[in-house]
């Protein structure tokens, strides 16, 4: 049986989440690098696979699926990283949807600076980012892992997004429970070392090169 084709780009947090999961579950795929800078995601061949022109995308012998969360849920079916219990599953889903929102706000901050529609991060977006981190901190004060008492697929998704945030110039000192969980994930994820520092740092390195900090500026009265 052929291995699934996994279309990815190394610097992408959603792709990193899938890679971490693949390694944890020891699943084999054929890795196909899609270079976004060369617009390889906009070729007719790739658009035929994913009209949303996004990585990650998985092609499992003709069953094609996009979005890291959907891919992760598909790959983890039947494993001990997910559950059929409606309560546990609801918590996992809640954390997965939360991750989509967290990634969206980071995307909004990153893309507008990268493509130079802004020279400073939107204060509204930074405020939303801090609010979401505050909520994650509260979740993790009450639970060991993001969705409850055991490691689930949601930890992989939130970890990959948080990893990008962690490497940005941002003060995270008040998020003690998140930082503790982050260190625990690093020790637990067997594929952690396979994600290159440069890829985890991509956004952070760019922001540092421009001297941009993710902070809320106090407005003078
Ligand atoms: N919600 C999606 C987001 C995927 C995403 O935004 N991928 C980016 C790379 S990080 C991409 O492919 N961008 C190219 C484009 O949107 O044209 C997921 O979790 O997979």
From TrEMBL:
Biological processes per GO annotation: glutathione metabolic process
- Every GST N-terminal domain range: 2-83
Transferase as UniProt keyword: yes
> CDD domains from the entry?
GST_C_Delta_Epsilon, GST_N_Delta_Epsilon
Annotated Gene3D superfamilies: 1.20.1050.10, Glutaredoxin (3.40.30.10)
Q: Which UniProt keywords apply?
A: Transferase
A GO term for molecular function:
glutathione transferase activity
Q: What is its EC number?
A: 2.5.1.18
User: Which SUPFAM superfamilies does the entry mention?
Assistant: GST C-terminal domain-like (SSF47616), Thioredoxin-like (SSF52833)
What Pfam family does this protein match (any one)? Answer: GST_N_3
Q: What's the catalysed reaction?
A: RX + glutathione = an S-substituted glutathione + a halide anion + H(+)
Q: Which residues form the GST C-terminal domain?
A: 85-206
> What assembly does the database describe for this protein?
Homodimer.
**Which protein family is named in the record?**
Belongs to the GST superfamily. Theta family.
Q: State the name under which the record lists this protein.
A: glutathione transferase
Q: Which gene encodes it?
A: GSTu1
